[in-house]
Specification:
155 residues, 8 helices, mainly alpha
Length: 155
């Protein structure tokens, strides 16, 4: 297990708690940019979706993808993308396990406090000590992944 500083632990837990907000922010930013670049494309894609019953032909617009790759993406959006990638790796590692259920239940954006850990323990039928140990393991794994992805520099 890695030893994390208090600040690093709080940073990683904060990213885990805010993962849905970060995801929404990234999606909204890219959707807004797409509308700025291709205002008629939104209406056209809506019409195609209505006519085809929501089905697509499986082809991608390579010109649009090139423009998106070359556009300037703000630093906070780029950072959110990097953290979302890390959180995705962490979620896939623990998917379908009791630790994955703890990850979903504890970091779902519910209010902070002592009652949250107790409600998660009751839901998963585990002791608080086990929940805290699992939470530490999840945060430490997220720290190791973020270090390998060069998102954080040191522990």
């Amino acid at each position: 297990m890695a030893l994390l500083s208090r600040e690093m632990y709080k940073l990683i837990e904060g990213k885990l708690h805010n993962r849905y907000n970060m995801q929404d922010e990234v999606i909204i930013w890219f959707a807004g940019k797409r509308y700025e670049l291709f205002p008629d494309d939104m209406a056209l894609s809506r019409k195609i979706s209505e006519v085809s019953g929501g089905k697509t032909n499986g082809k991608s617009d390579t010109t649009a993808m090139t423009v998106i790759k070359r556009m300037h993406i703000p630093k906070h959006i780029r950072e959110a993308q990097r953290w979302l990638k890390i959180i995705g790796i962490v979620e896939s590692r623990y998917a379908g396990t009791p630790k994955g259920m703890l990850l979903d239940a504890y970091y779902d954006g519910s209010p902070k406090g002592k009652g949250r850990i107790q409600s998660v323990c009751d839901k998963l039928c585990i002791e608080q000590a086990t929940a805290y140990n699992w939470r530490d393991e999840i945060v430490n794994f997220a720290a190791l992944v973020s270090a390998t992805e060069n998102v954080i520099k040191k522990f």
